[in-house]
Amino acid sequence: MRLPSIQGLLAFEAVARLRSVNLAADELSITPSAVSHRIRQLETQLAVRFFSGRDFNLSVDGVTYLARVREAITALQQVPGHQNALAARRLRVAVTPTFSRQMLLPRLAVFCHAHPNIELMLQVATPVRNMTVEEADIELRFGTGPFHDRECLPLLADEVSPVCSLDYLRRHGPFNGFATDDAVSRAQLLRTPLESWSTWFKAHDINLPEPAMGNQFSDLGLMHDAAAASLGVALMRLKLGRSWLASGQLVRLSTRSVPSPNAYFLCWRPGALERVECAAFVDWVRRAMDD
Questions:
Q1: Omega of the bond prior to 146 within 30 degrees of 0, cis?
Q2: Would the pTM of this model clear 0.85, i.e. be above it?
């Protein structure tokens, strides 16, 4: 494949950053129709669509390619002998505790090796309210989405299934797939505002209300640890809880799993991907979660 034209790449980057063909045309000193033409040519050559709507929201392919385009532009702007060219770029990322420990940190060395000039500052976010201690450049949010104050990239969906410790199962089981009113009623259900038991109940025609009493946890990892300590039965997100199952700390009570209505989203303020470090991190996380 022949290399894309620099004019097309600059037009794409300007429209993605400014979210306007007219503003991009003014910046590049060409006509709006020329901007549109260059982007269409680039999309045709690469066989991708960069934007998903008339308001210039980036498609998943657009987010990925924009990161590469900005890295290339930044590299071309680095003049040999200029010390500031490789100055560290600080990136503040707000992450939820269990996701960061189970999904992000085991993969993070790959990003750090690929981008040694990006200094990461990881901040703890409260998943229930999407709150961070201080302002972040990139945020991991949990819920149903979309989040109207941010641009978002769906990152990780999951399925849920009940789990408990082997000791708890021996003392209180068997639970026969945890699929009947009687089986569920005999268990101490661990609660969290992050996952509703009604998801499991509806899928199995269990005629019980959402539990209103019992131990409650605002962090999924803490709830998994509580279940491992034989405090009761937890509704586990299976991708997030993989290590508890692999180690034998928890066992599944059913071979069936149910799609959770909640997912993880990577979010940022409009215009944040103008910064190379933000675009690079978004692109890397998206690809890392696909592995």
A1: yes
A2: no
